[in-house]
Design a protein that fits this description.
Structural class: mainly alpha
Number of helices: 4
Helix content: over 70%
Largest sheet: none
Number of strands: 0
Strand content: under 5%
């Protein structure tokens, strides 16, 4: 598998952990075991989950970076990460957490993000 595909795959996995660390604690009210966890406990739990995120995100960016032989420059890496982040978040919010619905204006925003990817990657 190429460095670019490895980078994107690791970014996807990283964003799963990021979404759990950043937003998963908002679902703890559904669990009798975890709902009484105080804020400092939630912070520590999120930091623990975020450690897995960083353990995947740092190598993903290094593998993908043209500075280390990968195919992407910094802007490309950032746009890839943001699009993956929003896609992973959408899957979690709509289908896993079941906390929100996918509205038309969100879809319009995603179209604009895809346009951003086009403009970032287009060689002018």
């Amino acid at each position: 598998m190429s460095a670019g595909l490895w980078s994107i795959s690791l970014l996807i996995l990283s964003n799963v952990f990021m979404t759990l660390a950043w937003y998963g604690h908002l679902q703890l009210h559904k669990s009798q075991r975890w709902s009484a966890l105080p804020l400092y406990g939630v912070i520590l739990l999120s930091w623990f989950i975020a450690l897995a995120e960083y353990a995947l995100q740092v190598p993903a960016n290094r593998l993908g970076s043209e500075n280390y032989g990968g195919p992407f420059n910094l802007f490309e890496l950032k746009v890839i990460q943001e699009v993956i982040s929003l896609l992973v978040f959408t899957v979690f919010a709509v289908w896993i957490f079941k906390s929100d619905e996918l509205r038309w204006n969100y879809m319009v925003g995603f179209v604009f993000l895809i346009l951003a990817v086009f403009f970032i990657f287009k060689r002018w």
